[in-house]
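Office hours follow-up: a student asked to see two folded examples consecutively, so here they are.
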Amino acid sequence: MYLDTSSEHVDFIWMIKNAVVPRPIAWIGSVSLAGGYNLAPYSYFQLVTMDPPMLMVSFTGSKDTLDNIRHTGDFVVNLVTEGFEADQTDTAALFDADVDEAALLGLDTTPSTVVTPPRLAGAKVALECRATEEKEMPGATLVFAEVVGVHTDDGVLDDRGRIDIERYRPVGRLGGALYTTITSAYRIPVPSADAVLAGHRSGVLAGAVADRTTGTPEPQAEISTSA
């Protein structure tokens, strides 16, 4: 099947949304000029560089979160994890601007270290962010921000102080109303060019696939952090 994205055929939209998955969910906490707290989820979100650490969030239409970021210049990305699926979906509802979604749902917050908006007390990972640039795109506004602080629940860390994916259990957005929880990972090291030319790559992949299909992925401590 081929779909021309320049046509009026809407199926390509759903095709792309269902193909580019899973998308991490930025559960953004922001504060208005009047001091009101806002909490809303965004899955058009991603890291863009690490030196300095920068991320991007895409906003479509008029959003309270975007208005707040424009006024105050900072926000918090609470990463959505298992157990918060329903709550983050509830905060996507179109409430009035003065509604505190966290208070409404009984979600506790705690002060951030650098930025103004508080973070969710139950978030396993929260990123304190300062907006650096706004770029208008056809149908969307992109906000780029520097991550100025990271809060991590000690319970998701391994003995090296790195995030253990099986403890972290992040939730990703799929197409439509579908979500997924990442509960395991497997390791595929990047080989040398000589190893690829020698045909060793196929052996590495075969081993990883075998581990995955037998339900015995390599220990989390061995997962590569190079990407």
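And the second, which I mentioned at the end of office hours:
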Amino acid sequence: VQLPEVLPRLVAALNEEIVRQSQPLEQELVVLLERKEELKTKIEKWEAALEDSPELFPMLKDRLDELTEKRRQLHIRENEILGIFQQQGEPIQVKDVQRILTSWI
């Protein structure tokens, strides 16, 4: 790893792998946000139906609770993914790796 030409290639490969591994999460996040928006719309429709016909509450309550729970679970997963992205931070820099390696010597 001490060879000057090896370290930049190694760091570039690591950064590429980080990006490659984050792509499925990015795709999942897009789908998740779309699904969350769909659920929000459905919940709003159910709530509007309940406002118009409160007597339907006993029949619609379970469905409304189910939709709300699904949306809550999607929100939790969204926060998990965003947390992973936040932890990834900036790409690895060659100078940082060099500094770490020289501190070990």
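Two things to take away from it. Residues 20-88 form one domain. Helices lie at 6-52, 57-88, 94-104.
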